[in-house]
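Appendix B, record 7
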Amino acid sequence: MRAEDIKEYCLSKHKAYETLPFGEVPICYKLNGKIFAQLYPYERDYKITLKCTADVGDFYRQIYPNKVVRGYHCPPAQQPYWNTIYLKDFPDAELLHMIDLAYETVLHSFSKKVQAEIMLD
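Structure tokens (predicted):
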């Protein structure tokens, strides 16, 4: 999947927006101030890091060894909650599903009141 397609998909999520808090890369996609995806669009290092729950993260690391790894940039305590996916030859449908899960994980990290406010518009 091309980086432009990934960007478009992330931005199609309700109230998602793009930001560059760390410089040129990663390109971050946030919901209500929290990152759910970090895209590294360069061909030499084409990957995305996605928010997840610890058990979902572990599941994908087992299913796609060497393609899905713990969030490489995270401190050890946060690594179980982020997966880095090396995108070369990774199944498109699976990637879109993982982006959906990342968005939902962040959405559900907010209180019920905040979730309702986010989904209101």
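Remarks on this record: The domain at 3-111 is CATH 3.90.1150.30 (Aspartate Aminotransferase, domain 1). The chain has one domain: 3-111.
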